[in-house]
Amino acid sequence: MSNLVLEKVNQALGLLQEKEIDLWITFVRETSAGGDPVLPLIFGDGDLTWQSALILSRSGERSALVGRFDAPAVEAAGVYPTVVGYDESLRPELLRVLERLAPESIALNYSPDDVLADGLSHGLYQVLMGYLAGTPFAERVISAAGVIGALRCRKTSGEVARIRAAIQTTLDIYARTFDQVQPGMSEAEIAAFMHGQIDERGLGPAWHLDHCPTVNAGPDSPVGHVGAGAYRIERGQLLHFDFGVQQDGFCADLQRMVYFLASGESAPPEPVQRGFDAALHALQAAVAAMKPGVRGVDVDAAGRAAVVEAGYPEYKHATGHHLGRLAHDGGGVLGPAWERYGDTPFRPLEVGHVYAVELGLAVPGYGYIGLEEDVVVTDSGAEYVGEPQVELVLR
Amino acid sequence: MSNLVLEKVNQALGLLQEKEIDLWITFVRETSAGGDPVLPLIFGDGDLTWQSALILSRSGERSALVGRFDAPAVEAAGVYPTVVGYDESLRPELLRVLERLAPESIALNYSPDDVLADGLSHGLYQVLMGYLAGTPFAERVISAAGVIGALRCRKTSGEVARIRAAIQTTLDIYARTFDQVQPGMSEAEIAAFMHGQIDERGLGPAWHLDHCPTVNAGPDSPVGHVGAGAYRIERGQLLHFDFGVQQDGFCADLQRMVYFLASGESAPPEPVQRGFDAALHALQAAVAAMKPGVRGVDVDAAGRAAVVEAGYPEYKHATGHHLGRLAHDGGGVLGPAWERYGDTPFRPLEVGHVYAVELGLAVPGYGYIGLEEDVVVTDSGAEYVGEPQVELVLR
After folding, report:
1. A-chain residues near B328 (CB < 8 A)
2. Sign of CA dihedral A222, A223, A226, A230
3. Is residue A54 a contact partner of residue A93, using CB atoms and an 8 Å limit?
4. Chain mean position to CA B236
5. Distance from CA of B13 to the nearest CA of A (A)
6. How far does B36 lie from chain A, in Å, by closest CA?
7. Closest approach of chain B CAs to the CA of A265, in angstroms?
8. Buried b (16+ CB within 10 A) or exposed e, A323-334
9. Span B184-198, average pLDDT
10. CB contact under 8 A, A330 and B70
11. Which helix (H) or strand (E) holds B141?
């Protein structure tokens, strides 16, 4: 773990230079109660109890100001060469560092748009601004969202390798599940089989177990962030999955489609095949639009337009999101210019970004078709990580 | 789970009346990435993905404004009778509720002092203030820390019962560990035995597994939030533990002391016995000072003075903290008036509060003596939850 953390901390020092930010302070306390989502990247999985400041500077400084009881563990981890343990108040230690480094810009972890760059709580922000009150530093505070977004989203090769492994495991569990599903099984029974597959491997789900997997059997099952329920899959219906494992700290996120042939059918009926082809074509159009420098909103438009042009209603969600330590790994989205997405659809794609690309449409009378593939952005475009679904699985 | 959540939501409605606050908004998004620590109390363990507002009012309103894909699960949970699912922006739905209820005070989840009442991130605070800009409501925002602190810290009988069960399990694991420890065992070996006991019962640690338990063998082992390490317990030394399990969503937090009799000893040497007696007397003095209305700082002073009067150095931490869903369960502390504790030592004890009371001192040449007991505040004082340690365990 510590090597990956050191790799990311060094990446962060480079990002401060690239973005011309003098100082980045991650200010936290009692992290066992939640903590800043950037901590797994730049600190690892230990706890910080009293008010603590992890300080990285454009000049290459790596300092941790922490409560005295936390200091030995932070020193032992070896990521921060300078560890200062304090007894009564963080303020004097913090001001000492600021006076020594005299930063013109001080980045803090807040962002209206990116939950993973927004780890500074409002009360703790007030505390910090109280410490800086009356100093010139109070006026030099900026958002660290640019640094954090780039740090989280530009995956190192080690990170991509871990995501790839999580995807392979997810595809393996899908394959075993497709062998197992039978007409008459309930969504809950199918989900239980997949949970057993996760447990057997000693892994976790990529998101909350209650709806990982989401399983939708037939046309009446409600689609969305809802658990697998009581509907039973029958012949002549579509079975939809949204699922991924978390493995070695990293996630997969893939949707898959199965059609249960009705009695006498040797192929899916026309509306089902047409729906699948439309979804597949739209997803491929979105992936084809992906390359460094393109904005998420343009990738979204490619997928969205293809669905609408094929005669289906516009889907009510973004076409994609970053994937990494979390299934929704922050940063920009491949999404439309809707208010709730803020500025996130306007961020350009970069080499090393890993996205889950997803879209869907309903086929009345048969069920929901949702497809989702994971891709990594390279110099020349986007490459699928793991084999994409290009045909309906038939049962 | 849902019954306990409904119990706490109803308690919250009563607290809004008691504290004369018109409206309380818990504003969150992408809670799978962390989320507000109040969510387990008033929402349960599901996720909210898009910007979401859980609204409780002094007039008894319980409304959830959530993204459309989250709405079915929130409806199914049954805690919020009014669930509004939105597509593009939360703002119009939120303003509609505010205009209808016309609150004079709107409490939000921020607090400089209480990490568990500080779940609103600074960026999300900026988003919300943007929504309220140009309305009279922007001026009516206050901290919800009083409501959240009382809600979390006044344990219902159902909550106390769960804490009691976690303590019983912790004492049982301690008893088995005391049977198991032998001179020559390393701190890490002892911790591994206790981890095995947690695993066998299908439970979790009350805080990070790396230092739950903390085990200190002899005089050279570093004390603090550091893992069990390489020191081996030898005859003529003190063995110190800090440990608790998390069971059914609630925690225990207890310190225990063992002395390994040296060859020829039938009782601990005078400095060891005197140190234990001083620590025990100080802890009992702190517990004796506890009753409703007393401030944490006064409880702290009772324990702290007893240690100093017995001739030992003043310990560098607070004498106690709330215990509940978390080992450090927010709210006030039984602590000194040090800057890093903010206003938390000045909060009065209330009936239903559950605290871990802890203090310690070093006995040079023998080791560290730390004691910690869990107590519940009643009308007449404080009662131990679980049997306290009143004698050194001898091995």
Report:
1. 30, 32-33, 49
2. positive
3. no
4. 35
5. 24
6. 8
7. 33
8. bbbbbbbbbbbb
9. 95
10. no
11. strand B141-143
CB contact under 8 A, A88 and B328: no
- The DSSP H or E segment spanning B86 is strand B82-86
> Which of these, A234, A235, A211, A209, lies nearest to A224 by C-alpha position?
A211
Structure tokens at A15: 């990002």
Answer left, alpha or beta for residue B330, where phi above 0 means left and psi between -120 and 50 means alpha.
Answer: left
Under a CB-based contact definition with an 8 Å cutoff, are residues B226 and B178 in contact? Answer: no
Chain B nearest CA to A266, separation (Å): 34
For chain A, the structural domain boundaries read: 2-152, 154-394
B32, B110, B130 member nearest A122 (Cβ): B110
Q: Which of A47, A51, A340, A368 to mutate to test the interface with B (most CBs of B within 10 A)?
A: A340
Q: Which two tokens stand for residue B285?
A: 């003095």
Domain B154-394 classified CATH 3.40.50.1000?
Answer: no
Q: ∠ CA A268-A269-A275 to the nearest 5 degrees?
A: 85
Substitution target in A1, A120, A216, A225 with the highest count of B β-carbons within 10 Å is: A225
**How confident is the model over A206-251, as pLDDT tens digits?**
998 888 999 999 999 988 656 668 899 999 999 999 999 999 999 9
Tokens matching residue B9: 């939501």
Hey, are the CB atoms on A122 and B127 less than 8 Å from each other?
no
pLDDT the model gives residue B342: 84
Number of Cα atoms under 13 Å in the Cβ half of residue B150: 16
Cβ(B377)–Cβ(B349) under 8 Å? yes
- Closest C-alpha to A210, from B201, B89, B49, B119: B49
Tell me the shortest Cα–Cα distance from A124 to chain B, in angstroms: 5
Q: What is the DSSP code string of A327-387?
A: SS--S-EE--S-GGGTTGGGSBP-TT-EEEEEEEEEETTTEEEEEEEEEEE-SSSEEESSP
**What's the gap in Å between the CA of B278 and the closest CA on chain A?**
23
Query: Cβ neighbours of residue A324 under 8 Å, at least 6 residues apart?
Result: A152, A153, A155, A159, A163, A250, A251, A354
Q: What is the pLDDT of residues B204-243, one digit of tens each?
A: 999 988 889 999 999 999 886 566 688 999 999 999 999 9
Is the CB of B328 less than 8 angstroms away from the CB of A32?
A: yes
For domain A2-152, the CATH superfamily is: Creatinase/prolidase N-terminal domain (3.40.350.10)
Residues 6 or more apart whose CB falls under 8 angstroms from that of B320 comprise B286, B296, B299, B300, B333, B334, B335, B355, B356, B357, B358
Choose among A69, A116, A224: nearest Cβ to B225: A69
How many Å apart are CA A287 and CA A32, to the nearest integer? 39
Beta-sheet pairing, A367-377 with A354-363: antiparallel
* Candidates B51, B120, B226; nearest CB to A121: B120
The secondary element (H helix, E strand) that includes residue A159 is helix A157-180
Omega within 30 of 0 (cis) for the link into B213: yes
Q: Which residues pair with B333 in a beta bridge?
A: B321
- Is the peptide bond prior to A213 cis by the omega test (within 30 degrees of 0)? yes
Contacts of A91 in chain B (CB under 8 A): 339
* Contact state of A69 with B224 under an 8 Å Cβ cutoff: yes
A to B CB pairs, distance under 8 Å: 183
Which is nearest to B30 in space by CA: A194, A318, A27, A175? A318
Distance of CA A213 to the CA centre of its chain: 16
The two counts, helices (H) then strands (E), for chain A are: 10, 18
Joined tokens for residue B41 = 């109390």
Neighboring chain B residues of A71 at a CB cutoff of 8 Å: 224
Specify the pTM.
0.77
Question: From CA B59, how far away is CA B63, in angstroms rounded?
Answer: 12
State the ipTM, two decimals.
0.75
